[in-house]
Amino acid sequence: MYYSNIHPKYRSYDEFREDDVEDFILNEMDKKVNENVAKKITSIQTLYNKYSHIRSFLKSQGSTKFYIERDQLIEKINLKEKDITEQNILSDETIKTILGFYSKRRESIRNTAIFLVCLCYGFERSTLSKLSFDNVKNKKLFIEDRVLDIPPKLFNVLSELKSVNKKNKVKGNYFFYSSINNSKVLANQSFNEIFKLLGKIDDNDPKWNSITPTAIRASLIRRMFNNNYSIEEISYITGADLINLANIISYEDILSKVKSKKKISVNKHPFNFVLY
Question: For the domain bounded by 87-276, which CATH number is listed?
């Protein structure tokens, strides 16, 4: 639609130029200028994927004049790598600050457990609300058709949470319950509110408002990929299907990793320091 609006007169695919893609990306960035940090990061990552789709489509149509590589194009329009990743949002220091923040507030054990589960598995809110101690056996989490290891530090927090739930006379065996009604399992919106609390760490820093289960999930998937986890392993642990993974890990990312020939002997969990 963008291309047809700019060039209403028909042009063949061979007339499609690098400048057209550059203009399109700049146009997309302008649309996002008033959105918050997390949205901006996601949108620029999406631009990477759009570039890959455009390039693949043109190649499939026999175009031979679209030579520029993705990173060359990004460099050409002066986008920096730090602008397209959320690495700084979930730095080690940030994670320590979050854990310290939750430890000093009401429902500290529950909220800490929620955060650590997100860091460990990247679960969506709908999955978080279904987690049950009935599915924990021998320090493993049985969920759907998967069996996931529970790291030691996370297991200790979950054990403490189970004791707290019992002390509060919770009627049920799920992980996460409402603090107002101890027989009501936390709903999706309630998880949002727990993460919104992080904004109180620093009202002037939008970073804290950008930390959500969705942002953590995307960061975890990207970091696992960079830490030499296979696509199959990432899908198995996070429960993300291939379509969702493709929205986070682009073809260009895979190509770049293969070309780098970087070999990592151990696929270490990205947030190992707070889980093991």
Answer: 1.10.443.10
